[in-house]
Write a structure and sequence with these properties.
- The protein has 354 residues and is an alpha/beta fold.
- Helix 1 crosses helix 12 and helix 6 packs across helix 10.
- The longest helix is centred in the N-terminal third of the chain and has 15 residues.
- The two termini are 15 Å apart.
Length: 354
């Protein structure tokens, strides 16, 4: 029997079952059907039912790379997600497991203004030292592919394959009414790069009358959450903006809102935008980062603004509140989405195995 290992710098949580979680479970199932024994390595995991069929090693919130190297076996296939690319870790894999085929999946967002010069030089040097130890790079979007080449040079270009992420779409409840009700949703990992601070400041710039006609629920957790909560308190927006934490059933919630707001400064794929559109929920997002796949068509299935432009976002929100800008069902449905199904994603990943 052939052996495969999947190494993920990713924490598994029972209250956050998202697109990648569903991918991991289905990918495991299909690898086993192909005759592989599969070991999974995650940054942290406390047992819960969703993952009970996977053979999981937890790093207990320490280095996932170190955990994997300590348990390195004679694997035929090694796949990484969310790890640092072109790092010494990959050389260590090949030194200890020279016959393995190594695939690295790029999910890592880039800063809006790009990396500083020092970091670009470091990445280029690492590419020279370590890129040869990775047999295949998977980019989750064209944006990701372009930045892989920008980061690590043309030497890796022939190794890159674009495979879009996928969604289990039959789980999602669809929006039916487009009558404005004053409810907005934000759903993401709460990092600075998600740009939620600009949304909070934009809401703070609305006049008092408009603020009384809007409610924003923020779902998710992350390292920037306390900073965002302090900003909400400073602007006296506690009755307007509510932090809901992580939930496992966003697919059943999106349709209840009027718009998703996703003011992101950097994405590679952006699950939350795709999920919202599948629920027929209009999206307000940034021109390049949030709309990285180009699925949001301005004034048809959502509204687009420049990254970090608080004033433009304030105007959009005010216009929506006062019925100056609207999205109707016929305009929304005039935009045809590509096939971004979970089954296609898994098929494409399986198809890349040697």
């Amino acid at each position: 029997m052939r052996k495969a290992a999947v190494v993920c710098n990713y924490i598994l949580k029972r209250d956050r079952i998202g697109g990648m979680d569903r991918f991991f479970v289905l990918f495991d199932e299909q690898l086993k059907e192909k005759g592989y024994a599969v070991d999974w390595f995650f940054t942290d995991y406390t047992t819960f039912e969703f993952y009970n069929k996977l053979n999981i090693y937890s790093a207990n919130n320490s280095s996932i790379e170190k955990k994997f190297l300590e348990n390195l076996s004679n694997y035929d296939i090694i796949i990484t997600h969310f790890t640092e690319l072109c790092a010494k870790f990959y050389r260590d894999i090949k030194v200890n497991n020279p016959n393995s085929y190594v695939i690295s999946v790029d999910h890592n967002p880039r800063p809006l203004a790009g990396f500083p010069l020092k970091k670009r030089i470091i990445k280029y040097i690492k590419s020279i030292l370590y890129a040869s130890y990775i047999d295949k790079f998977i980019a989750v979007s064209k944006y990701s592919e372009e930045h892989l080449v920008n980061d690590f040079g043309k030497r890796i270009q022939k190794k890159i394959v674009v495979v879009y992420n996928g969604i289990l779409s039959n789980n999602f409840l669809e929006k039916q009414s487009y009558r404005y009700g004053g409810r907005f949703i934000v759903a993401c990992h709460l990092r600075k790069e998600k740009g939620i601070q600009f949304l909070i400041n934009a809401i703070g710039s609305l006049n008092t009358f408009d603020q009384k006609k809007i409610k924003v629920d923020i779902y998710g957790e992350g390292p920037y959450s306390e900073t965002l909560k302090v900003l909400v308190n400073e602007l006296n927006l506690e009755t307007v903006i509510l932090f809901k934490g992580s939930v496992p059933n966003l697919h059943e919630i999106y349709y209840q809102y009027d718009y998703l707001i996703h003011p992101s400064l950097g994405e590679t794929f952006c699950y939350t935008v795709v999920e919202s559109l599948l629920c027929k929920l209009p999206v307000i997002t940034t021109k390049c980062a949030g709309n990285v796949l180009g699925l949001v068509k301005n004034k048809r299935n959502g509204f687009i603004f420049e990254e970090a432009d608080k004033k433009e976002l304030t105007v959009i929100l005010s216009d929506i509140i006062n019925d100056i800008r609207t999205i109707n069902k016929s305009n929304f449905e005039s935009v045809i989405l590509p096939d971004l199904s979970l089954s296609k994603m898994v098929y494409n990943h399986i198809n890349l195995l040697p």
